[in-house]
Amino acid sequence: MTKVSCDHKARVQIKDLLLRAYIGIKEEEINNQQDVIINVCLTYDATEAINRNEITAALNYRTITKQIIGHVDGNRFALLERLTHEVLSIVMEHGAVQWAQVEIDKPHALRYAESVSVCLEAHR
Questions:
Q1: What residues does 37 pair with on adjacent strands?
Q2: In terms of pTM, does the model score above 0.70?
Q3: Where residue 1 falls among pLDDT bands split at 50, 70, 90?
Q4: How are strands ordered across the β-sheet holding 115-123?
């Protein structure tokens, strides 16, 4: 195999994680769960994972996803901004994460729009 010199910053994407939560401020939103679609993009230094080829050397995106599900699914949030901030905080709790972006869509939040989304990002 040819040896290649490159940056080992890995970009991991968790795409279209569909969960249900109570999200909003109107009575209908407070009393009925709604779909939210979560997209996470993050970077981390994957040098050790590449060199060792072992799961223990990699960022465990399954663990991050389970934490997001546990925090969001079935819970209550008044604002999409707050929910997005909380999910971003969960991602950034993992010390290996160098940069992350979280976008959360609330489908059919507006009458003539497919969805409304809020996107936040953080870095170390």
A1: 18, 105
A2: yes
A3: low
A4: 76-77, 9-23, 34-45, 97-107, 115-123
